[in-house]
Structures
1.
Amino acid sequence: MEALQFSRCVGDVLLARWSECSNSTFKALVNSSPFMETILVENEVQQEVKLLDAINDDHEGVIVELNKPINSDDFASMLRASIAQWRKQGKRGVWIKVPIELVNLVEAAVKERFWYHHAEPKHLMLIYWIPECTHTLPANASHRVGVCAFVMNEKREVLVVQEKTGILRGTGVWKFPTGVVEEGEHICDAVVREVKEETDIDTKFIEVLAFRQSHKAFFEKSDLSFICLLQPLSFNIQKQESEIDAAQWLQVANWLIVRTSMFSIVTLQLPAVDVIG
């Protein structure tokens, strides 16, 4: 009987409160009776927003790798809620890896003040800085690394090529085989590979002879290029049809001046004795 009277009292209070407040401002939280459900109203029923899955990095930041399709509006809500949570946790940098299949989410992230860090063939990396100070996130890769091969046989002939493309196309200029180091590739392996691709000559890496640095060389990036000494292991040239117009062993004197696409003028003094081959 007492429980029934109590529940009626609670009901009377709720009805009175309802009559005093509009639907948009009615707020009540009643959890004092086993006969009543918890009521939470604020213009509409509040729903818990799921947070983005993230892992901690080594610098008090988080990394998010998106891998499931999601509506851009839902993603925006999750992103805002996640940032609020990370801010409470004292996190700093936020990295979001967006696969190319989920490119529709990029605009939502940019609207939350994320910016581009770098792009790869299959994903885009976005970053965000939570603290109210200048960010300390590392910049994207700043240099491209190239190689240039100096290959001389026992006859003191140097391996040279003429390119079908590039700034030296059609000029008749002979140059050393050159190329760009691939991701995860060592310089010594890259230069051997480039010679093989352009001339079909097998070689052995000996040492780095020289290197140079330039700036704003390729899409405003800096460039590091290494001239490498290689020992030929084969001698019959088969030029690369797609990129090389001509290739040969070129006889030189004790001083060699060769113009290349990676070095303006390269002057090399040849060894006094035959040490290669």
2.
Amino acid sequence: MVKNVIWIPSSLLLCFTGFILCANDRLASRRFCGYQHSDEYSRDSPNVTINEFPWVAQLLYDDKRRVRCTGSLINNRYVLTSAQCVSNNQNLVGVRLGDFNRTSVEDCVHHTIFGEECSEPVQEFEIDEIIPHPKFNKSTSEDDIAVIRLSHNAQYTDYIRPICLPIPGSRDIGDKELALSGWGILGRLQNITEVKKKILASFVGLEECNAVYNKSVVMGMVEGL
């Protein structure tokens, strides 16, 4: 049963039911989404290669276009992200796709058996519309999800592709190892990494997550007394 529905312009409909989202055919084709060129060849480095995770988007803030959040391209016009990244007038001004090293104009790596590989130029977009979940609760992080409509269509390349969204009937990912990617802080009091990174993680179900989260909150309250 659908609990919360967001109506996105141009007939893109996402239905939020836990981890399942349903949508019409405006979402990227499942014959195309989730594909990355890096899967086609072997490489001798565990680092993220230049065309891995081509759906990761950088969110740009203020007049210096700083990268403070990321999202995922879900079709050629929309990026899925956290509602925390677009709330409270944070001055989100744009989205960048296809980047690897956020400090360089041209990105090149040497992770493949073919030698040096350089990416195509990044694509940048202004913001057409920001649609946070109407029931987003900052205090509890409930319904922490949002959609950004880009100012124009993204052009797919080997370095810019959409990710697949789970739909009704998708296989259970409970036993799968998950990969997370983006530009984050490497440690306490550290700066944001210059190049795209990845970490491996395990899926935690909602019931287990709630139990751990509630326990942490209670312990923090006790320690603060």
3.
Amino acid sequence: MNKFSFKFRKLVVPFLIVCAIVLYIFFRRRSVQPAQHGGMFTGIQNKTPARSSYEVYYEKLEKELFSQEIVRSGRSIMKKSDIVLFGMLNDAYIPFTYSWLCNTLPMAIHGSVLLLTMDKNSTNLLKRDWPEVHTVHLPAKDFKGDQEYSKAGYVKMMHLRTQVINLLLRNKIPLLLFETDCLWISNPIPEVIQAVKGHDILAVKPTHKHGYLGGFMCLMPTEAALKVWGELSERMLSLHNSLTSLKDNEKVADETNDQVFFSSIMEQERKNIKVYEFSNKKIVDGKWYIDFTGKDRKEMRPFIINNNWVLGNKDKITRAKKWGHWFVSDSLQCNMMQVNKVIQL
């Protein structure tokens, strides 16, 4: 045997041995996997579809203790009410929330209210001073201070709000989403409940742009509404994940928020969903303070005036006080004399 043949055998033989071992392991593994029996296709494995990343997220969310408390609160409200009034706040919104609670005290609706708080101090204050309201602390993160529209902190909070709404809807709990920085001149709930019958969603169009208001809508736990809100929840989770590296006060694009996403999805699903468009003369946005004449305001006779179209909590409070729409003192005491001047029962 010459040297070349010896070297060749020295290289090839180990290589063949390795190949044989690899092939043995491969076929061995295949042979021990249990066959999935499926009639005439016995031996062909039916793989379970992989769960989406959102479903994995949601399964974790619904197991959280605060999620269980939210659902219990919603079910408790539904034993006595037709709908859950759902809102969300952090410590900076405590003055707005107290003003709204003073504002609506004569309307006897507080037993239907479920408030989600972003910090423990707000939770304790509300439970102490407004025990009739159902208050749940969301211990995800303390979003403290002003969270301005189109800032990362605000969008992250809206992500959490969206997910909690999805949780309530999946548990067959209808809800009216509202925000506490608004004025309730009279109680819209009876008319809203009547209007939403036979529909999936009740929504309101802004007075000066396309889409829908993000701070007032009635959602029924129907298949169509769940599809819309499910897609919104997935989009908001993806957006939230893309913002994790941003500080709360950093700007994000105006077109990336729950209101824009919701309006876009509603347009896509317009043939598949029954929407009742509530009058934007009854649920008015903040343009009421800016663009309407005195005659317009008297003729509109709204249920609710939203204190938006202004940035910053300080300016919101200043505007509310200017118009006599602020009902709480600096020590968080109700000014019921002012309430009775404004509301219409």
